[in-house]
Design goal:
This protein is α/β, with parallel strands linked by helices. The chain has helices at residues 13-22, 45-54, 64-73, 86-89, 94-102, 128-142, 147-153, 168-180, and strands spanning 3-6, 31-34, 58-60, 107-110, 115-118, 184-185, 206-207, 220-222, 231-233, 237-239, 252-255. Helix 6 packs across helix 8 (168-180).
């Protein structure tokens, strides 16, 4: 019995099947964790979503592309030229798939494995307890009648700095941006969402996990940052987005067998 964590699939269904064959995945005894961004940009988003949904032992968190699918399905956002989501929206089981996706978390923590799964990271000024509480706030909104309002208002880069007294749409937008879009912060711990390259490309900015006063969270595994690639910092910080949708490999690690 093994638990494997897989980086951003983004509709790369054939590559996912090849990876599972390579690691000799047994769906009846093994568990798969997915770092989010299950769909979009790859050519097989529908097949990927259907396959992951039906797995008996599976955990996934929401990524920015997954949330974009939910917004696009509600006609909140127009289609982007690189989107590959129409097959999902035209499928006979679209409502079932979207309902399932809507009910996935932003953060998953396993005490036994001592590992937290998120898409982009955990904001440096949040400890694990606060991060879990804030993730649940957004999940509750997303899974309620407030879903459409949340999806309409989640776009944008403001506010950039967290305050505990943030309320309403500003609060939810910051939480979503931190969990699904964050890569860099500045010296004041403001989200620098415009910066999407490798750390060497932005010497004036700080990768979120290197912020000097980052609060303790325990080990974290995430995706989202293909320019960072497969990354392991002190067996505490693991990035698994190796850019499969851009022609790179799809990457998995087995928890309990690190590094």
């Amino acid at each position: 019995m093994s638990t494997y964590v897989i980086g951003d699939v983004q509709g790369c269904y054939a590559e996912l099947l090849a990876l599972l064959e390579r690691i000799q995945f047994n769906e009846h005894s093994d568990t798969l964790w997915f770092c989010g961004d299950l769909v979009n940009r790859g050519k097989s988003s529908l097949e990927t979503l259907r396959f992951i949904k039906q797995l008996p032992n599976r955990i996934t968190v929401l990524g920015n592309h997954d949330l974009h699918l939910l917004a696009y399905a509600q006609n909140i956002r127009p289609k982007h030229p690189t989107d590959t989501l129409d097959d999902i929206l035209q499928a006979p089981d679209r409502d079932e798939l979207l309902h399932w996706l809507q009910h996935q978390p932003l953060l998953h923590h396993d005490e036994h494995l001592n590992m937290t799964l998120v898409h982009a990271g955990i904001y440096p000024l949040w400890d694990l307890t606060q991060a879990k509480i804030l993730a649940k706030e957004v999940e509750t909104q997303l899974q309620s009648d407030a879903q459409i309002t949340l999806l309409k208002d989640m776009y944008g880069g403001q506010p950039t700095l967290w305050h505990d007294n943030l309320t309403g749409n500003d609060r939810y937008r910051f939480i979503i941006n931190a969990f699904t879009r964050m890569r860099f912060v500045n010296a004041q711990c403001e989200l620098m969402l415009h910066a999407d390259g490798a750390p060497i490309d932005h010497p004036d900015l700080i990768p979120w996990f290197d912020f000097p006063d980052r609060k303790p969270t325990g080990p974290i595994v995430f995706g989202h940052w293909s320019r960072l690639g497969k990354f392991n910092k002190n067996n505490e910080i693991f990035c698994l987005d190796t850019g499969c949708v851009w022609g790179g490999p799809l990457t998995a690690i087995r928890i309990g067998a690190l590094p």
